[in-house]
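Handout, section B. The chain below has 317 residues.
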Amino acid sequence: MSVLVVAEHNNVSLKSSTLNTIQAASQIDKDIHLLVCGFQNDEVVNQASTLEGVNKILQLNDEIIQHQLAEHVSQVIINLSKNYSHILAPSSTFGKNFMPRAAAILDHSQISDISGVISPDTFIRPIYAGNAIATVQSLDPVKFITVRTTSFEPVEIVGGSASIEKISLNLEGIATKFLDRKEAKSERPELGSARVVISGGRGLENGDNFKLLNEIADKLNAAIGASRAAVDAGYIGNECQVGQTGKMVAPELYIAVGISGAIQHLAGMKESKIIVAINKDEEAPIFGIADYGLKADLFQALPEISKELDLLNDIAK
């Protein structure tokens, strides 16, 4: 049977996590369908139709599902589940919101955060904050799977020619309604898909000192991240948290500033291509996985790095 991937998007464009999830699906079966739920989402569907490996787009375009509430999306995939052997979604806030609900209603076990596919019923997933790797097998008739997107390369956004099928489902019986959304807005790249991430930890001492990271982030076009310790201390909002209980990132360059390297944080960023650590404690665990380490006081090192970046930018001009 076919594999269904639930697309993550904002009704305007696809999130990059969808491309990685499709790659994971392609290792299970080559007949991949993509579900696009939302409202006035024609542009998203047009983008999706060109994705490599996608055979069919299922478009649900209805105002009631504009905000993709878990109660609504889970009911949609439950209604569609009889047509599929696997249902996949990114292991992001989006996927974690509705996939457990749908699996539980059907009395199936969810396979969370897979990082590899061995066979259509056997998968690899990290456990214990990534310190151990488990091989799990599911005999459920429909396998509900969330995908650790940093473990799979994105599919190409050209070359596909998926057909589009419009679907309509009755969701009027669901009492849950969307009231309001408050979210932080930034001109910086999205943390989960940024090519460069610079993260701060408790070593920054207070929230005002995150401006030192902001200066460098602006010059590198980087996203700002943080350790859980920094978030718990109130230095920065939890939307910036990187780690097991935050966001998983795998940028080309990850700069960890004043972060000791607790295993929960390492679980969220250790797949980064290049890791740079700045810490005055030479015994900090972060140095154990860093490609480049700088033992220094961050309050001296960051202004110097900022000056060097200014010089490089002047030379480039």
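Note. The mean pLDDT is 93. Compare this with the example in section A.
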